[in-house]
TrEMBL record:
One of its GO terms (cellular component) is extracellular space. This is Fibrinogen C-terminal domain-containing protein. It comes from Pristionchus fissidentatus. PANTHER family: FI21813P1-RELATED, FIBRINOGEN/TENASCIN/ANGIOPOEITIN. It comes from the Eukaryota. Residues 1-20 form the signal peptide. Keywords: Disulfide bond, Signal.
Length: 221
């Protein structure tokens, strides 16, 4: 959502500040990635599921959609872990890369329900693209919602409630909306290509609406 972008000065300062204390997650192909989220199509709305549903999980790993559940995710991510994002395709009208594949890896931890499942996302911008992924070469990404609690339609913890009720961003970690939401409405009522519903911002430059998504978690080596 364009009006929510941080001012340019923050974007210029951020890398210097962040780089001084965050270690990059060490990723190798033999890591034991556990599925957290999956969307193959529009068969499940995601954005208007309840707090209870997001807490307990829904769908199945073998099916077209899946959400592990925040309680289980918290159990696996009380300490720093690696969170991997995968996205296939772009449904935004006029997309230059309608068949592209993108991925990203963050350092991730998740608080208990008493914190409203406050998440921590870290990413060291100096990490080579081969390790950090090619969805995170700008700063408009999940790290903008570091330290943010979870919101659902029946439990909005975002000071800007429209991020849930109008922009249909989820079931997600929202504070003045977000720079990405993988649980947003598949076909957002307000349209594609504009940071509503299911979206991601590539290179900090343009919005994509992935056709398929997956999220994975693994212990950080
Ligand atoms: C959830 O939203 C979808 C549209 O994205 C709508 O078709 C569906 O009826 C809604 N479900 C509930 C329970 O409100
Ligand atoms: C991202 O990386 C994957 C695998 O490393 C590659 O298949 C894909 O084409 C890359 N996408 C972009 C936009 O560079
Ligand atoms: C958690 O969310 C509830 C409902 O939105 C709110 O009343 C409560 O103050 C929140 N707790 C914390 C620790 O933020």
């Amino acid at each position: 959502v364009a009006e929510m972008f941080p001012p340019l000065v923050i974007l210029i300062l951020l890398p210097t500040i962040v780089s001084s204390f965050i270690l990059p997650p060490q990723i190798s192909d033999d890591q034991n990635w556990v599925l957290v989220q999956k969307r193959d199509d529009d068969s499940e709305d995601f954005w208007n599921r309840s707090w209870k549903d997001y807490k307990e999980g829904f769908g199945s790993e073998q099916g077209a959609f899946y959400w592990m559940g925040l309680e289980k995710l918290h159990g696996m991510a009380t300490k720093d872990t690696s969170l991997k994002i995968e996205m296939w395709g772009d449904r935004a009208p006029g997309s230059n890369n309608p068949e592209e594949y993108y991925w990203a890896v963050y350092t991730f931890s998740l608080g208990a329900e008493s914190t409203n499942y406050t998440a921590h996302f870290d990413y060291d911008w100096r990490t080579p693209v081969e390790e950090a992924g090619n969805a995170t070469t700008g700063w408009y990404d999940m790290t903008c919602n570091d330290g943010v609690p979870f919101s659902t339609v029946d439990r909005i913890n975002d000071p800007v409630s429209q991020c849930v009720t109008d922009y249909h961003l989820g079931g997600w970690w929202l504070r003045n909306c977000a720079m990405a939401s993988l649980n947003g409405e598949y076909w957002p009522s307000l349209g594609l290509g504009n940071g509503y519903g299911l979206f991601w911002i590539v290179d900090g430059l343009y919005v994509i609406n992935p056709a398929k998504t997956k999220m994975w978690i693994a212990s950080t080596n």
